[in-house]
Amino acid sequence: MRPGPPAPVSPLLRSAAAHAWRLLVVGAAVYAAFAVLGRFHEIGVGLFLGLVATALLRPVADLVVRGGLPRGLAVAATLLGAIALVLGVLALVAEAVAGQTTTLAQEFRDGIDRIEAWLERPPFHLDREALSGVQGRIGQFLSSHRSTLLSTAVSGAGHVVHVLAVLALALFSAVFFIHSGHRQWAWFCGQLPEPARARWEPAGLAAWRTFTGYTHGIVLVAATNAVLVGIALYLLGVPLAVPLALLEFFAAFVPLVGSPVALAVAAVVALAAKGPLVAGIVVALIVVIGQIEGHLLHPLVMSWAVRLHPLVVAVSVLAGATAAGVIGAVVAVPLVSVLWSVRTALTSGNGMTGGSTGASGSTGTVGNTGPENTSGGSR
């Protein structure tokens, strides 16, 4: 008896299989990309910081060029001014910490005593001997592991060398990006075949507009958060208000997560230095600033640069943190935004439209800072 014809494959199963092998290929490509980035992450971080510096400083350099200074000198003056500003802020923070060292030590000792007395009262009813035992165990741990901690600190000197190398690469790349980034992009497009060049050139412009828009927006959000936190902590009398405001500024570069973590650190400092009441006010400040950031700053400032659903932002931050730690959490959202902008430009067939969707508020600045500004290098 001859076997009958094979049963037809369901169209749904055939479509699922077709999509499954494509997803496997995409997953393998993404894994390979992250493996390469993990192997050479110092280079990636250095180039990323160079692009951030370019997005922030190229408008300033163009303004100086329009003032009559040659472009090379304008780039040098802009970078030196930015470095002087950063070093000045760090010196201000160091001076603020050094000036409060003695007072802080006494306040924290008094604060620990207040916290212990607070934990002994209802509703905690903790035993004083148990609390003192915790302090003793901490001291015993530090004493018994002193050599390990010291060796860890010494090995950290090697990381300092890596950080300096990354900063040097960022500065070196920023010099060329600010001075003649448009020429480098034009050279890259010139190496592509003619059909691909016609598509990728506008896609690159769209990606740059999205990246500069995101950079300007996140810096504005971070600066606003830092100013609000610094003023609030200063009015509440919380020590280290300036360093904590600076911590809030850098933490805001991790969307949705960084700002609450930085404010939680401020709440712990307030609890140790000023007691539970001030710490409670700082916790309330976390909620207020979170609402301002989520419902006012991000919609107003970021909507013209990046149009991503909050769930996409959250998943991107978590995926970036899982893949590359804090650096991945910082890079994840701009990377996803740029990729989405490129995808929109390629599928629409008009990179200028795809890249500038919702970016009309920044075209006056970003349009003069992107790779398309071919007149800047000839000045």
Structural account:
There is one protein chain. With 379 residues, the protein is an all-alpha fold. The chain folds into two domains: 38-146 and 158-191, no CATH class; 198-367. It has 13 helices and no strands. The chain has helices at residues 11-39, 41-66, 71-99, 101-120, 128-144, 146-190, 194-236, 241-251, 258-274, 276-302, 310-348, 351-355, 363-366. Helix 7 (194-236) packs antiparallel against helix 8 (241-251). The longest helix is centred in the middle third of the chain and has 45 residues, at 146-190. It is globular. The model is unreliable at 350-379 (pLDDT under 50).
What are the salient characteristics of this protein?
mainly alpha; disordered C terminus; 379 residues; globular; 82% helix; 2 domains
Task: Describe the secondary structure blueprint for this structure.
Layout lengths: L10 H29 L1 H26 L4 H29 L1 H20 L7 H17 L1 H45 L3 H43 L4 H11 L6 H17 L1 H27 L7 H39 L2 H5 L7 H4 L13
